[in-house]
Amino acid sequence: MIIQDTMPATVLAVGRLMAGTAGESRRSAHLFDVHSGGSYPEFLHARCGAAMPYDHLEWLPVGSGMPCERCLGLTDSADQTRLPRPGRGV
Asked: The organism sits in which domain of life (predicted)?
């Protein structure tokens, strides 16, 4: 049984511009906070601030594609599990 109220308000998605819509140097994988609902705006804004046309995006599985360094730097550190680094004593 699926309860409608359990759907999160936003979902973190990974996407990039489709092949043929931009040069390869602009096709890095960005992080998007996609709001659950029926309609989508013409442009989606990545966490780094890049605005991309919704109909030119391809959605990727987590961990694939060349990541946008600015998007990665702006991720919420509370969402990430920090693993100890035994070699560095951290």
From this structure: Bacteria
Q: Is residue 30 part of a domain?
A: yes
Per-residue pLDDT tens over the stretch 35-88 = 876 677 889 999 999 999 999 999 999 888 899 989 888 665 554 444 455 565
DSSP classification of residue 62: T
Q: Is residue 5 part of a domain?
A: no
Number of domains making up the chain: 1
Tokens of 90: 């951290």
Extended strands (E) in the chain: 10-17, 30-35, 43-45, 51-53, 57-60
- Domain containing 41: what range? 10-72
Q: Write down the residue that tokens 């049984």 correspond to.
A: 1
